[in-house]
Each structure stands twice: as structure tokens, then as C-alpha cells.
Design goal:
Number of helices: 8
Helix content: 10-25%
Structural class: alpha+beta
Largest sheet: 9 strands, antiparallel
Low-confidence stretches: 1-91, 206-211, 367-381
Number of strands: 11
Distance between the termini: 36 Å
Amino acid sequence: MKNDILHRLTAVRPAHLDPDRPTPSPVREEELATVMSRPRATRTARATARPRRVGRPLVSGLALATATAMAAVVITHTAPEKPGPAPSAAPGSGSQVLLAAASHVEQQPAGSGTYWYVEEHLGTLQKVPGKNYTVDVRTEQRYWTAAAKNRPWSQLLDLGARPATKADEAAWKADGSPTSWNLMGETVTYAGRGEIQHDAPGGIADVVKMGDLPLRLLATLPTDEKALRKRLFALVDKDYNGPEEILDRIVVDTAVRVATTLPSTPALRAAAYRLLAAEPGVRSLGDVEDHTGRTGYAVALPSPHGPVELRLIFDKSTGMPLGTESVATRSGDGVSKGELQSYTTITSMKWTHEAPPFDTDSEDPGPISAPDGAPDPKPAR
């Protein structure tokens, strides 16, 4: 497949970053930080799960049900042997929850295999223009990485859109139960399209690194949280040319990936938890359920991607990550403060000897919009 890098970078850039459009400088800075740290993303992925300006779905990659009445977490196990970065944190605080999760996760087996495999369900909540309901635009992403050679495979599936809540479902039914919608110039459907793209090594899945951390570097990362932050900053500073504030945001974003979907050793994953525990503003959200109904506990910290709060959900018994949520922290641009923007649920994450089911790229889907910028046809009912 031809690797049209300019075409790819154009697709990655949000429309409101177009230099011909007047955009407030704070918004430009937030979105530039997002684009700099975004993991590998396909044109089609953006067509099916494009976020609104206040946030973005996690990816990287890698994020994710809103917890509206959360009880305080009660910490009952022994404190971690390593000193935490916030020893004065109150019991049940966000820092303490992360330290508790770290002490659990570092006891998990390391595992081994030929491929590191991750399967995630992603959702982006979007208001239907001219209607009084919101739909959850859902996708599934699967990643395989041959750790020995750091060769990536990826697969993207369109799972279709659904009314986001019971109230949204009632409004959708009152609207005649349409089966497709035009959202931000793209048509999404109730049925979904199934697989919409897969990429093998040598194709567009590995054209631009976009903030990914090569697996070969994981073994070189320190397992002390302060040393880990210093090392991640050095790696980010080498790859990107930006002010320190933006580089710090990318460090946090990279630490989240180390803590969640990368094949980190138990000690390294725990170090990433402890690094995040030291972040200003981290707070406990108590007991929660993820989007598959699994019980866990969660913390929130300011997102490195603008006026949103990033919520991390962990399994209560193992400390392993279950997913993330992105929630608006201020009203505006058609959203309300506290509104869920996007989520990611990790449905599988493991080492395996089973090879990816494809070894070539799917056909290039081309631009996400018509050359003249015309939107897709109006949705049919």
C-alpha cells in the first residue's frame, strides 16, 4: 500500500485546526498537544469515532459508564513496600487508590508470548443535530505486536451507534427510530459496517509513530516512579519540539499507556501508577462499574487533552486496568460540565502465540470526506 503521509496527517488534524479558521489560541494549544500525542489512528477510525472539541476518545490508543453516585473507597490491604509519591495523602484519596492499585498489580504474573494482544471497545458520545438525544458511536480496536521485532498489526471494526441512555432511547423512538445519522459530516449507522480496516507491518499502521512508545524501550524503563518520569520526559523531549507544558502533558499521556495497554512488567505498571498518583488534582471516584458491568474502583485526574477529566478504572482484586472515561470539566461547545464524552473498555489484554488473522493491509479507504468538503448524504430512516 502506498504510504501517503501528507494525506494521513491531514486526516488526523481536527477540522477546527485549519489555519484559515479563527480558533482561540488555548484551543489550538490543547488540540496540538492531542495530535502530537495521539497513537496510531486511521482515517476511517476518525470517521466513525470523531470526538468533539472538548475531548477525544482514548486510545491508544488507547478509554470508559459515568459514575454518578460513587461511594468512597475503603483501603483494607497492606500499603506498598515502596514509598509512595504522596505519603500525606488521606486514606481513600485518589493518590492512595493508585498506590493501593500499584501494590496489587505488582503481584500479578508477568506472562510471555510471541505477540502482545489488546482488544478495546471504544465509544464516543455525540448529540444528533436538531434532535434531543445523544448516540454512542462504538468501535472495536484490536492490536497485535510482535515484541521481538516491534512489528504492529491492527484491526478496526465499526460496531454501530446506539442511543446513549434510556432517556436517549425514548427520544430516539419518538423520532421514528432512525437507523443512520449524519454526525459532523459523516454517516454512522445502527447496524455498523463490521471490519472497516486492518493493517499489517509495512502499511499505514506504522507510517507515523504519533506518540507510541516502542516495545523495545519498555525493558529500559526504570521501575522507580521518579526515575520513570525523568526517563519518559527525555524520550518525549527527543521526539517532539514543543514547550515544556505540552511535553509534560505527553509524559502523562505516555504514563497512562504504560499503566494500561502496553505490555509492561508488573513492576513497571506499578511505577506508572505511582507516577500518576503524584499528579496534581488526582482524586478518588470510589466504586464504579465499567461498560461491561465489571466492578472496579476509579480515580480522576486532569486530562492532558484540554478541558476534560480522565477517569481510570481498575479491577478491585488485581489492580489491572479495566478502561478509561473522558468527562467534560466545563460547559460549552454544545456539552455540559460533567457530561461523558468518550470511553474505552479493555476487553482482552494478554500475551499469546496466536498470530494475527491477516498479513496484508486492507484497501486504503481514502479521504474521510469528499474533496470539496461536502458532507455525506442525509441519513436514511
